[in-house]
Amino acid sequence: MLVTLEGLDGSGKTTVWEALHDAYPDAVFTREPTSDSWYGEAVNRAIDDDDADPLATLFLFTADHADHLSRVVRPALADGDLVVSDRYSDSRYAYQAAALRDSDLRRPMEYIMGIHAAFSRPPDKTIYLDVDPETAAARSGATNKFEQAAYLADVRANYERLIDAEPERFVRVDATQSPEDVLDAVEAALEEVLAEQ
Ligand SMILES: Nc1ncnc2c1ncn2[C@@H]1O[C@H](COP(=O)(O)OP(=O)(O)OP(=O)(O)O)[C@@H](O)[C@H]1O
Ligand SMILES: Cc1cn([C@H]2C[C@H](O)[C@@H](COP(=O)(O)O)O2)c(=O)[nH]c1=O
Predict the structure, then answer these.
(1) Which of 42, 95, 138, 150 is deepest in the core (most CB within 10 A)?
(2) Which InterPro entries would you find in this protein's record (predicted)?
(3) Are the C-beta atoms of 189 and 4 separated by less than 8 Å?
(4) Is 140 part of any known ligand binding site?
């Protein structure tokens, strides 16, 4: 089963993802952008480059996703493992659709989803850590172009579109709660998902 953690920068995904290692010692924990490949390194260069072309950036993130799928996600799923990914395809739909909002693409989110539909493996469940853009920007330190409150407001609106389209896949968790309460809510959601399996 493939479970993904999604949300704005600073929503607390990585904090939760790290804490889940103890509760699910046999699961495969992974992330996007990947941290162990040159594709991930290329993505990080684009994140840090304020002048990076947004369409080129989309394809770098998508290349990293293709490598992540073939090298990590599909083999783990084939072995019957629980895979928990800190960010995955929804991050592209939410973030790159916002970055490409004023581009020549008529419907950026649909375009990005179309590219993924040809090769990706959709998540079985997605835990969405919901936080307002101001809190997100403050917590993340606003250190890169994606971590600005105005941009994150667009990203959040895109996440809401994704949730509206597939309410059964998403579990929304209030990420303004204390870290302990957020983790309790995520663990409860995961237990329910695994029990349904
Ligand atoms: N529930 C919470 N309440 C207050 N602060 C939190 C909470 N969860 C995480 N934080 C703090 O917010 C900061 C960002 O947390 P974290 O790195 O887990 O977020 P993230 O969603 O993974 O961000 P990014 O997407 O930018 O990597 C950290 O300093 C962390 O300690
Ligand atoms: C996977 C992915 C990520 N992003 C953005 C979101 C963050 O601002 C950075 C890095 O992610 P992290 O969780 O803070 O390490 O990249 C994106 O725009 N599109 C994506 O597909």
Answers:
(1) 95
(2) P-loop_NTPase (IPR027417), Thymidylate_kin-like_dom (IPR039430), Thymidylate_kinase (IPR018094)
(3) no
(4) no
Measured in degrees and rounded to the nearest 5, phi and psi for residue 141 equal 85, 0
CATH class in words for 2-196: alpha beta
Among all bound ligands, the one having the nearest atom to the CA of 16 is 1
pLDDT in tens, 27-49: 999 999 999 999 999 999 999 99
Q: Do 29 and 84 contact (CB within 8 A), yes or no?
A: yes
Question: Do 153 and 98 form a contact (C-beta atoms < 8 A)?
Answer: no
Report residue 75 as tokens. 């083999």
Q: Is the CB of 47 under 6 A from ligand 2?
A: yes
Alpha helices in the chain (DSSP H): 13-23, 38-48, 54-68, 74-78, 89-91, 97-99, 108-117, 133-140, 149-165, 179-196
Distance from C-alpha of 60 to C-alpha of 3, rounded to nearest angstrom: 23
Whose C-alpha lies nearest to ligand 1, atom 27? Answer: 9
State pTM to two decimals.
Answer: 0.97
